[in-house]
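Worked example 3. Consider a protein that binds iron/sulfur cluster.
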Amino acid sequence: MSGQRAVIVGSGFGGSVSALRLAEKGYAVTVLEQGPRFERGDFPKTTWDVRRFFWVPQLGFRGPFRMSFFRHVTILSGVGVGGGSLVYANTLPEPPDAFYGQGSWAGLADWKAELAPHYATAKRMLGATRRPDSAAGVTDEVLGEIAADMGRSEHYGATDVAVYFGEPGKRVPDPFFDGDGPDRVGCTLCGSCMTGCRIGAKNTLDRNYLWLAEKRGARILADTRVSAVRRRDAGYRVEAEGPDGPLVLEADLVVLSAGVLGTTELLLRMKADPGGLPALSGTVGRQVRTNSEALLGVVTDGSRDLTRGVAIGSILHTDAHSHIEPVRYGPGSGLFRLMALPHAPGDRLRKRLGASLRSAAARPGAFVRSLVVRDWSKATAILLYMRTVDGTLRFRLGAAGLATSPDTGALPTASIPEASALAERFAEKLGGFPVSMFTETLAAIPSTAHILGGACIGATAEDGVIGVDHQVHGYPGLYVCDGSAVSANPGVNPSLTITAMAERAMAGVPHATGGATGAAHEGMERTATPTR
Ligand SMILES: Cc1cc2nc3c(=O)[nH]c(=O)nc-3n(C[C@H](O)[C@H](O)[C@H](O)COP(=O)(O)OP(=O)(O)OC[C@H]3O[C@@H](n4cnc5c(N)ncnc54)[C@H](O)[C@@H]3O)c2cc1C
Ligand code: SF4
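Given these inputs, the predicted complex is written out as structure tokens:
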């Protein structure tokens, strides 16, 4: 008797949790990931190595960092075995209580109580560690001063980060899983977490969940992009394009974990296809939200090195709904200077351009230095401001893939007065000049690294794409476990929450029946031209 087969689409946070937990439950697990597998030396030394940094496969750029430009938002995300963990800033905060009672999942479970043990597991698995005092960088100290100025020192602190803080540069046997995981190297505080850790200190998913999943028989097919998931008899047929051509896999259970961009597009395409998943909820692509964040920069004269530390080393809760984190890139990673313009909030272009000119005229010295400073990343504090305020977008299929339109509430905005005021405080303390992405200054389009929703939880298909168990309404055995299942705005960096939600969902999946994992892998797929 052959065993049960599970296919997981995407290898980010949701996909990695699913791979390990389903392998432990006896499924023959195959993970399909569109991006490559990266070794430490594959990551770029700086952002200027665009071929190794950016994911633009059409141009032959096969790096881990992707930028997607839409009418209402610019989305930053990760690609490759490990998904967003490859380029994320390692920060793992828990959301405030308000998160559990908002959005389409409100009232369907006691989410706070149910998720609590899974947050604990997620922290342990991701290797969450409080950033030591000795690892505080200049901008962490400046944030502490700002907290004191605001009378909010008790709301300021070090972040919990997925980093191994052993002796800098020293390799040790796995310190997280009693030797079952890979070696780690002590963090050197090089600040390069968001271009990929070349040291071996960052707990990316290929060093925890995926590593352990592979040890338990899961296999990961990199460079393999899924193009369709179709209902077939009691299971599903997954069609993909791999390095050797088209691939078709039959599965008893499928987990969609392709991140919001991947999962939402796949679901929208399959809903529109009579041979796909036509009975999907009409809410697919709806309730897409950001963390309502603002990303700003403060460029200084470079006299103090702002790169030393981990990517995000401190956090200040500025009120009950908002917080700010200073972010850093490593030395030499100044490519984003090409995309920066003077920070100028406002609802109209003319207003923003006027504010931009006034800002430059008010401090010409700082403005000119921001343009000519030699090592931009050493001189620049990036500020990530987030809040729980909600407003959602909708993804639809456009002529060139996904397109956004407004959904409910206020649109995400690049103009948040509190964020601008905090940037001014930083600029004052550091003697710097505030900047934003050109898309924000010119077109008022906000940027987000925290896109969520699109396949939200609802009691029925009228209210959401998936049920409380993460199974797609109308499609038993088809699950969504990634950022697209997050059904309210956590107001904080979301990876810990995505991980905890995936842990909870996978805990509810029954154990596999039938034969051994290895036997079930045999004959699972065939290379073929996908048919409808
Ligand atoms: C620069 C940056 C910094 C960040 N910092 C933090 C932070 O400090 N803390 C935090 O909590 N979050 C952070 N984030 C956000 C975090 O990375 C994401 O929220 C998280 O990775 C989302 O997890 P996921 O499971 O939804 O999917 P992802 O991690 O996005 O993974 C999805 C995977 O699916 C793959 N995929 C997509 N489509 C297909 C397809 N059709 N076929 C096969 N594979 C496919 C993708 O290549 C990707 O590898 C950051 C993000 C960025 C970009
Ligand atoms: S600071 Fe450097 S060594 Fe430490 S985790 Fe980040 S990239 Fe790795």
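Take a moment to read the result before moving on. The pocket of iron/sulfur cluster (ligand 2) is lined by residues 163, 187-193, 197, 199, 201-202, 310 (CB under 6 Å). Confidence is low (pLDDT under 50) at residues 528-532.
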